[in-house]
Amino acid sequence: MQPERTLLAWQRTIALLVVVGLLFLRGSLVPGGDNVPEAPLVVRVATMAVLLVIGLVLGLHLWFRWRACEHGTRVPETGRPPLYLARPWAMAVLCAGVLALVGVLVLTVLLGL
């Protein structure tokens, strides 16, 4: 049961990353409102593209790792259950993507792009 929960948690995180990117791509919720600075369309599309690539890379990594570990039951090399579903680099990539998104949002507000 535990491996399935870990996989579902990763899937929810990736889905949420894409949803936040889509909200940023959409722009202002009030058409024509100048209260909140909005990034140019090129910046929003580039940010969404990076988030989609991160989501794709992490999703494929989890899928391949899930299949290699026999659905989270055992690691073929050791025969024991896996200590973690995703490799540590996956968490680093996720953190770097979120940090980059935060940086773009902060620069958008501070510089008034």
Automatic annotation (TrEMBL):
Main localization category: membrane
Topology of the protein relative to the lipid bilayer: Multi-pass membrane protein
Record keywords: Membrane, Transmembrane, Transmembrane helix
Organism domain of life: Bacteria
Cellular component terms (Gene Ontology): endomembrane system
InterPro entries reported for this sequence: DUF202
Subcellular location as annotated: Endomembrane system
Membrane-spanning ranges: 7-29, 41-64, 89-111
The keyword Cell membrane is assigned to this record: no
Domain DUF202: 1-70
Pfam families, A to Z: DUF202
Name under which the protein is recorded: DUF202 domain-containing protein
Species assigned in the record: Nocardiopsis sinuspersici
